[in-house]
């Protein structure tokens, strides 16, 4: 384990060094500060904006959902109440939106007619509708399955 | 009338009067009262404890090492696949001198596969990265923020890892829609940051190895110490993340993987959408290849026995039809039937040696790759054509009329269009 860790760590440090060297020597001279700025920007947008929004969404949804539909059994910790299905639907819809965003923003600005040829707004809406429908269809299934799997004698909330 | 302000003890929250100065003492008056814990050290201690209370608390579940380990495994696999296929692409596109003449030309779909995988694994990594970072987000607020040199180094390496993976995926995602809002060169920075990212990843794995091992299986010692009640919730989260990976893959992979073409809803290209059934990266207008430049076109072959051919002379040479994919570095690819003269035959006619490398010059006047080099393994391959026709029709202007290169297992940017000159390099 120790030998493996040292090998991994050394290899990592070497590759990191190669990357840094490529960044410094193989790019234009003003590139390094620009890249550092964009690296920091990527972290700032992710850690300062995206994650707080996701955490807030979780906070806003989880408690009311559990109040309305129950928390599931003690061992289920919410999973069998169907909250997981709702969360899964939101994750899928959110990721599809993120992937669609560059296409939606650049629609009609393709460099030639064969670049960005599809109607991405319609496709994105279609995918969100499908995600919504699948989530809605799975919710009662998951809740009933969760109830059926409840061990005998467990109080029903 | 003035309000006399009575000095109080400097300990937070204490309203007692400070200790009176000892008779005959020099220097400033004491700032704390007689209470044994009310002194400078105690004040620091209590303000630190207060800060600790103010830091965000994460009561939600699953911000735990088991969740991070499971998602991290998938993410690590996606990142490594993305890195390896990226290196393959880079070597094929800009081969180092030692291997330039020995690049493999088989399988013919090799680059189509590896570059399709590069873009697909990058897209699949997006939900995984977001889920992984969500799971470890509370670690951002560890207190105190720096606990020694070792801890500082570890946090720095994590910062390098997180920022480089985030930026690499962002750059790649925008590159496939040909959108470049940054001031630097995409290719150079994407290439350099890939090594930074993988280096930081290996370093991270080395640092976290014991933690990963302790949570590798659901019966591992570390996993067993976590609340057992979280397990079903974790399973459900992982299913949700897995569904997101599947969803983003299925709606984009059709731009390279033909069976998924009907579900190709969010890919920047539709492989059968374009003139003559193929997409185009650079049109004749974009490359500033005018009709006049093409009208009196002649192919010049420079070698030991140089010669010039008109289009009709070229068309009278033995023609061959091959089915070869055109595979773009941006991830889309499509197969087509190409018809033209074998480059090998043109070289033999010029008396070129067998190990000769070629320089191929295009009429193209704008954009990169107007002049490309072709290693000996491609030049001698019987499937490498100077194509005049595609899918049964004469090449359109946008596909490189009058003649273009098409070779097996090669990035699309090197399949030079509007070829006017082939030079034998010796």
Strands of the biggest beta sheet of chain B: in what spatial order?
Answer: 2-1-10-5-6
Oligomer: heterodimer
Share of residues in strands of chain A:
under 5%
Helical proportion of chain B, percent range: 40-55%
Using only C-alpha atoms, the radius of gyration of chain B works out to: 32 Å
Mean pLDDT across residues of chain B: 91
Most extensive chain interface and residues per partner:
A-B, 79 and 86 residues
**Radius of gyration from the alpha-carbon trace of chain A, in angstroms:** 24 Å
Low-pLDDT segments, ≥5 res of chain B: none
Number of helices of chain B: 11
What is the structural class of chain A? mainly alpha
Q: Pick out the low-confidence regions of chain A.
A: 74-79, 152-157
Q: How many strands, what sense, and barrel or not for the largest sheet of chain B?
A: 5 strands, mixed
Mind describing the biggest β-sheet of chain A? Answer: none
Looking at the structure, what is the overall shape of chain B?
elongated
Assess the beta-strand content of chain B as a share of residues: 5-15%
Written description of the protein model:
- Chain B: The chain crosses the membrane at residues 74-93, 113-135, 156-180, 192-216, 237-257.
- Chain B: Keywords: Membrane, Transmembrane, Transmembrane helix.
- Chain B: Residues 292-425 form the Oxidoreductase molybdopterin-binding domain.
- Chain B: This is Molybdopterin-dependent oxidoreductase.
- The complex is a heterodimer of chains A (157) and B (426).
- Helix content of chain A is 74%, strand content 0%.
- Chain A has four helices and no strands.
- The radius of gyration of chain A is 24 Å and the shape is extended.
- Mean pLDDT of chain A is 86; it is low at 74-79 and 152-157.
- With 426 residues, chain B is an alpha+beta fold.
- Chain B has eleven helices and ten strands.
- In chain B, a hairpin with a 4-residue loop joins strand 1 and strand 2.
- Classes of the chains: A mainly alpha (157), B alpha+beta (426).
- At the A-B interface, helix 1, helix 2, helix 3 and helix 4 of A face helix 3, helix 4, helix 5 and helix 7 of B.
């Amino acid at each position: 384990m120790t030998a493996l860790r040292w090998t991994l760590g050394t290899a990592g440090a070497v590759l990191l060094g190669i990357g840094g060297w490529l960044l410094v020597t193989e790019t234009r001279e003003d590139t390094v500060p620009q890249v550092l700025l964009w690296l920091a920007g990527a972290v700032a947008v992710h850690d300062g904006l995206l994650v707080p929004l996701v955490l807030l969404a979780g906070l806003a949804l989880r408690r009311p959902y559990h109040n309305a539909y129950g928390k599931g059994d003690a061992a289920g910790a919410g999973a069998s109440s169907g909250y997981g299905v709702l969360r899964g639907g939101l994750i899928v819809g959110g990721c599809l939106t993120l992937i669609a965003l560059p296409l939606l923003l650049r629609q009609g600005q393709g460099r030639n007619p064969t670049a960005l040829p599809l109607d991405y707004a319609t496709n994105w809406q279609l995918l969100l509708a499908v995600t919504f429908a699948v989530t809605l269809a799975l919710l009662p299934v998951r809740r009933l399955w969760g109830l059926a799997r409840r061990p005998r004698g467990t109080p029903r909330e | 009338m003035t309000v006399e302000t009575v000095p109080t003890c400097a300990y937070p929250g204490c309203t007692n009067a400070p200790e009176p100065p000892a008779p005959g003492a020099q220097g400033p008056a004491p700032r704390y009262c007689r209470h044994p814990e009310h002194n400078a050290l105690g004040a620091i201690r209590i303000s630190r404890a207060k800060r600790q209370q103010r830091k965000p608390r994460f009561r939600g579940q699953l911000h735990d090492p088991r969740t991070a380990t499971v998602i991290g495994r998938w993410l690590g696999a996606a990142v490594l696949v993305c890195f390896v296929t990226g290196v393959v692409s880079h070597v094929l596109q800009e081969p180092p001198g030692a291997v330039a003449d020995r690049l493999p030309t088989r399988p013919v779909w090799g680059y189509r596969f590896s570059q399709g995988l590069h873009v697909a694994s990058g897209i699949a990594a997006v939900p995984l990265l977001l889920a992984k970072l969500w799971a470890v987000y509370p670690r951002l607020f560890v207190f105190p923020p720096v606990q020694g040199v070792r801890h500082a180094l570890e946090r720095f390496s994590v910062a390098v890892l997180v920022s480089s993976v985030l930026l690499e995926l962002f750059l790649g995602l925008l590159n496939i829609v040909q959108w470049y809002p940054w001031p630097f060169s995409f290719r150079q920075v994407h290439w350099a940051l890939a090594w930074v990212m993988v280096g930081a990843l290996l370093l991270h794995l080395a640092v976290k190895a014991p933690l990963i091992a302790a949570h590798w299986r659901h019966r591992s010692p570390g996993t067993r110490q976590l609340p057992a009640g979280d397990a079903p919730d974790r399973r459900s989260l992982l299913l949700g993340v897995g569904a997101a990976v599947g969803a983003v893959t299925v709606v984009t992979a059709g731009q390279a993987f033909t069976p998924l073409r009907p579900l190709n809803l969010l890919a920047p290209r539709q492989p059968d959408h374009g003139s003559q059934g193929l997409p185009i990266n650079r049109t004749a207008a974009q490359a500033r290849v005018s009709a006049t430049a093409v009208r009196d076109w002649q192919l010049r072959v420079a070698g030991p026995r140089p010669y010039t051919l008109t289009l009709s002379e070229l068309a009278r040479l033995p023609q061959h039809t091959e089915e070869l994919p055109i595979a773009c570095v941006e991830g889309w690819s499509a197969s087509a039937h190409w018809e033209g003269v074998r480059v090998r035959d043109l070289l033999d006619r010029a008396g070129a040696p067998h190990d000769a490398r070629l320089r191929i010059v295009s009429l193209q006047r704008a954009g990169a790759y107007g002049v490309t080099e072709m290693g000996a393994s491609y030049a001698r391959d019987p499937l490498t054509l100077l194509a005049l026709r595609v899918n049964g029709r004469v090449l359109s202007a946008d596909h490189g009329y009058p003649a273009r290169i098409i070779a097996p297992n090669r990035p699309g940017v090197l399949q030079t269009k509007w070829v006017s000159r082939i030079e034998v390099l010796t």
